[in-house]
Amino acid sequence: MQNSDRQEVIEDLLSKVDEGTPEVAQEIEQAHSLDDLALLLESLPVTDRVSFWEQLSPAIQLPVLAEMRADASEAIIRAVDEIRLHDLFAELDADTLLELQDVLTEPLLEEALGRMDTEQKQRYASAQQYADSEVGHWCDHQPLVVPAKTKVNVVLRLLRRVMPKYCDHVFVVDSRGVWVGAVPIHKLFGADGVLKISELVREQFPSLNAREDIYVSADKVASSEEVALPVLDDGGMLIGRLDLGTAYEMQAERAEAQIMATAGLDEDEDLFSPVMKSARNRALWLGINLMTAFLASWFIGLFEATLQQVVALAVLMPVVASMGGIAGSQTLTLIVRGLALGQISKSNLRPLLNKELQVGLLNGVLWAIVIGLIAGYWFNSWGLGMVIGAAIVANIISAALAGIFLPVILDKLKIDPALSGSVILTTVTDIVGFVAFLGLGTLFLL
To answer: Which coarse location class applies to the principal site listed for this UniProt protein (predicted)?
Structure first.
C-alpha cells in the first residue's frame, strides 16, 4: 500500500471506527494484507486501535498482533479482557507465540504452551535453544524435507499436497536428519520415478549456521540467488530454513532500527505510547546530550577573555561547529552502512581513511575559502577570515577521522555505532572546531 493510500484509509478508519460495526472492519480486512493491517492499527490512538482490532475476525486477530511492533501489540493485550485473551490464545501456534512472547504475561504464555500439541511445543522449544539475535530462533521449521532414500515419484506426490512459499528446492537429509543437500524441483519432472532423491542431489548448496546473527543470515539469503537457505545446527542437523521474504523483512527491520537509533529510540517505539513511557525512553539520551553540551561549553569557557575582546568569534562559532558536524555525519553514515554490510575490514581501512581524508581536505579548503571571504567582508577583518578558514579545514579533517574511527572502535566494543556514534561525533567536532577557532583567534587576533 502506498503512503498516500494508507493515509486515506487511516482517515477513513478514524471516522468509522466509533461506529463499532464489524462490516467496516471486515471490508478493510479483506482489502489489505496482514502487514498493512498492522501498520493501520499502529497508526490509530490506543482506544481506537483496540476497538478496531476487536472488530477484526478472530482468525486474523493474532496474526495481525504478531505483525505489529512490540509496544503497539502490548497496548492491545493490556486493554483487552483477560478472559477473552485466554480463549483467543487457545489456538496459538509456535511461530506466532515466538513473535508475541515478549509482550505476553506469564500466565498467558504458560496457558498457550499448555494448549499446544506436541509438535508445536517441540518447535517452540527448538527455537528457545537459540538467542533471539540468532537465525536458529527465527527460522521456518516447516521446510520441504525428505529422507535421502525417498523415491522421486513419492516426492512428486508430496509436492501435490504441500508446497511452502519461497520453495524451489526439496531439502534432503539422511536417516538421522543430517543435511545431505538440495534437489531443484524442476529436476524431478521427467526424472525416473523409481530413482532415489539422493541421486539428484545438489551437494554444493549454501547453508546457514543456527548460531549465526539473524541480520548476517538475512544478507546471505538476499545475496545467495536462492529463494531459501537451510539452517543447520553445529552437528549439521537440519532445523529449518530462512526464506527470501523473511530475509527482506529482517533487512528492513535493521534499517528501521538504525534510523531510530540515531535519535536514541527503540524500533518498537509506539506512535501512541503512554506519555511517561515515551518520556522515560527519551530522557537517557537527552541527559547524555546535555553532558556533551556542557563539555563543549567548558572548552568555550577557556577562551572567555578572547570572546570578550573579539565578539565576532562568538557570532561565527556556530558556522565552524555546523560544518564539522555535517562533514562528520556524512562519513559516519557511510562507515556505519559499510559495517552493517560487512564491507569494512583491516585490509581496506587504510585506503578508505586516505580517501576520506582527501575528500575532507578538498571540501575543507573549498569551504574555508568561501567562509573566509564572507567572514572577512562581513566583519571587515581579513585576519578573522583566515582564522575561520583554517579552523574549518582543521574541523572537517578531524570530522573525517572521527567519522571513520568512532564507528569502527564502537563496533569492536560491541556497541551499536548507529546508536551512540552521532552523539560522540558531534561532541568531537564541536570541541575540535571551537578549540581550533578560538585558539587561532587568541594567537592571531589579540
So the answer is: membrane
Whole-angstrom Cα distance, residue 240 to residue 201?
18
What is the spatial distance between Cα 190 and Cα 210, in angstroms, rounded to a whole number? Answer: 35
Q: List, for residues 124-164, the tens digit of each pLDDT value.
A: 888 889 998 899 998 888 788 999 999 999 989 988 888 88
The grid cell for 375 is 567572514
Q: Are 112 and 95 in contact (CB under 8 A)?
A: no
Q: What is the pLDDT of residues 165-207, one digit of tens each?
A: 888 899 999 989 999 999 999 898 888 888 999 899 987 899 9
Q: Are 210 and 135 in contact (CB under 8 A)?
A: yes
d(C-alpha 9, C-alpha 216), whole Å: 36
Q: How many CB atoms lie within 10 A of CB 185?
A: 16
Number of H helices, E strands in the chain: 21, 6
Single-letter residue type at 125: A
Task: Tell me which residue of 144, 146, 150 sits closest to 162, measured CA to CA.
Answer: 144
Instruction: For residues 364 and 211, give the distance between their C-alpha atoms in angstroms, rounded to a whole number.
Output: 45
Q: Are 72 and 270 spatial neighbours (Cβ–Cβ below 8 Å)? A: yes
Give me 158's grid cell.
508430496
Buried b (16+ CB within 10 A) or exposed e, 335-372: bbebbbeeebeeeeeeebeeebbebbeebbeebbeebb
By the 10 Å C-beta count (0-12 exposed, 13-18 middle, 19+ buried), 48 is classed as: middle
Look at residue 260 in the predicted model and tell me its pLDDT: 66
**Mind listing the pLDDT tens digit for each residue in 4-45?**
565 666 666 666 655 556 676 777 777 778 888 888 888 888
Round the average pLDDT of the chain to a whole number and report it: 84
Computed on alpha carbons and rounded to an integer, the radius of gyration of the chain in Å comes to 29
So what's the pLDDT on residue 5? 62
Beta-sheet strands, E only, within 244-288: none
Strands of the 179-184 sheet, one edge to the other: 145-147, 169-173, 179-184
Q: Checking DSSP bridges between strand 208-209 and strand 228-232, what pairing results, if any?
A: parallel
